[in-house]
Amino acid sequence: MLPTDDINSKVFTFTEESAIADNFDEFGYEQKNFIQNLGSLYYFFPYFCICLIVLLLLKLISMLGCSRPQKWYQQLKAYLFWNFLLRFTLEAYLELHLSATINVANLLFTWNSGDWIGALTSILVTVIVNAFPFALGIFYHRNFERVSDEGF
Description:
The protein is an all-alpha fold. It has helices at 4-11, 22-26, 34-38, 44-62, 67-105, 113-142. Helix 5 (67-105) packs across helix 6 (113-142). The chain has one domain (36-142).
């Protein structure tokens, strides 16, 4: 969706690397770096963080008694957490996991901004992606009696 090669070349510097194996190269994982392998998905993280900040600001403004920001807050909250977040997680889970695992297996901490930012974000994403199924299982276990409720 985004011209990530142009954006990445202007924002980051990367160490030149080749794919782990020809099979990975054929499926679009030409690099070992998390940022380069994710492409457009990497830039959805800042978008989501900005939306969370706007959501927080709307919540603070609505606490002052303004009704319109309260309405915007409810709409943005429903969009972020029940449409965007769930859809993004379902659509990108395998891509995130595979890109993060490739980078974690080949961590490269150099002075190049793309290398160390890619390494740090891949470690963070690896922890989150691997913990997600367990957290989801614990959540459903604690709320098992509410599973039959349509609203839940």
